[in-house]
Amino acid sequence: MIRSTENHFCARILDRRDISQDLSVFQIDPGGPFTYRAGQYATLGIERNGVRTERPYSIASSPYEDALEVFVELVPNGSLTPNLFQLKPGDSLLCRKIAKGRFTLDLRSDRSNHLLVSTVTGIAPFVSYVRTLYRDWKNGGTPMPGNHKLFCLQGASRPFEFGYREELEGYSAEVPWFKYVSTVSRPWEAPGWQGERGRVDDLLRKYADKWELQAETTTVYLCGHPKMIENSRGTLERAGWKKDAFLEEAYYHAAIKESGGKFETRAAQEKQESLLTP
Ligand SMILES: Cc1cc2nc3c(=O)[nH]c(=O)nc-3n(C[C@H](O)[C@H](O)[C@H](O)COP(=O)(O)OP(=O)(O)OC[C@H]3O[C@@H](n4cnc5c(N)ncnc54)[C@H](O)[C@@H]3O)c2cc1C
Asked: What is the CB neighbour count within 10 angstroms for residue 264?
C-alpha cells in the first residue's frame, strides 16, 4: 500500500505501452496538482518492505496534458526499474510533488537553433518540447519567441527502440520548425531498416552540416547515455561550439562493478543524490 507523504503524491498508473521487454511508456496520474515545464523531470518511487526507492524520469508529456508520461528502460539489476516494470494500470507509486530540472529550451540566449541529441529514452524531454510547441502552433500562437527551429537526432541499437518515431516523423513532415532523424547502430539486426545507420554521435557532424547549424547560433541539448554525451560534446567542441552552448542530462554515471555499484567519482554520486533532494 502506497501512501502520500509531505513530499509525495500517491500516483497511479493509468496505462502503459510496452515497446519491448525492457522499454515501456507509462501514463501516470500524478495524484495531485503537479506542474512542470517541458524538459523537466519527475521523481518516481516505490516503497517495498518499508524501503522507499526513488529515481528521476524525464517527462515526455506536455504540461498541456493531464497525464504524466515517462519512457523507461529496465535496468535488470537496478533498484527501482524491476519493480516499476511489474506495475500495471491501477497500481500505485510515489511521485514527488515538485518537478525539477533545468533541461528546458534555451530561449534566453541569442541562439535560435536547437540541436536535440538523444539515445533511446533520452528522447523524452524533446517529445515534451515538441508536443508543447506543436499545441501552441496549432492554436495559432507563434511556436516560440523569434524564429526558433528544432533539429532532433535520436539513436538506438534497433529500430523498435525509438518509442516515439512515428509521432516525431509526423511533426517533422508537418511543421516548418522541426526536423527529426533516427539512426540505428545495429542495422544488421534489422535488414528492412531504410534509415540512418551508425551511432548518433557519429552522425553529428553530417547533420550539423546538412542542417547548416553554426556554433554561434545553435544550442545543443544532449540527453541519455553518458558516453554519447561525452562523445557528442567532444565532436562539437572541436567544431567550434563553446561550453555555454551545451545543456546536458546524463541518465546515469558509469559505476565500478567490483565495488558493488558505487559511483566512479564523488562528484557523480553527489549529482545523483542532489537530484533526489526535495
Ligand atoms: C535527470 C535524470 C532523468 C532521467 N530520466 C530517465 C528517463 O526518462 N528514462 C529512463 O529510463 N531513465 C531515466 N533516468 C535514469 C533513472 O533515473 C534511473 O537511474 C534508471 O531508471 C535506473 O534505475 P534503477 O533504480 O533501476 O537502477 P540503479 O539501481 O539506479 O542502477 C543500477 C546500476 O545500473 C546503472 N544504470 C542506471 N541506468 C542505466 C541505464 N539506462 N543503462 C545502463 N546502466 C544503467 C547505474 O549506474 C548503476 O550502476 C534519468 C536520470 C536522471 C539523472
From this structure: 12
Would the CB of 249 count as within 6 Å of ligand 1?
A: yes
* Nearest CA residue ID for atom 13, ligand 1: 57
Nearest C-alpha to atom 19 of ligand 1 is from which residue? 252
CB of 276 shorter than 6 A to ligand 1 = no
Instruction: Please report the domains of the chain, with CATH numbers, ordered by start residue.
Output: 8-96 (2.40.30.10), 113-250 (3.40.50.80)
* pLDDT digits (tens), the chain, 278 positions: 688 899 999 999 999 999 999 999 999 999 999 999 999 999 999 998 889 999 999 999 999 999 999 999 999 999 999 999 999 999 999 999 999 999 999 988 989 999 999 999 999 999 999 999 999 999 987 767 678 999 999 999 999 999 999 999 999 999 999 999 999 999 999 999 999 999 999 999 999 999 999 999 999 999 999 999 999 999 999 999 999 999 999 999 865 443 444 444 444 444 455 555 54
Please say whether the beta carbons of 76 and 180 come within 8 A. no
Of 117, 134, 74, 81, the C-alpha closest to 220 is 117
Kindly state if the Cβ of 252 falls inside 6 Å of ligand 1: yes
- Please list, in sequence order, all residues whose beta carbon lies within 8 angstroms of the beta carbon of residue 49, skipping any fewer than 6 positions away: none
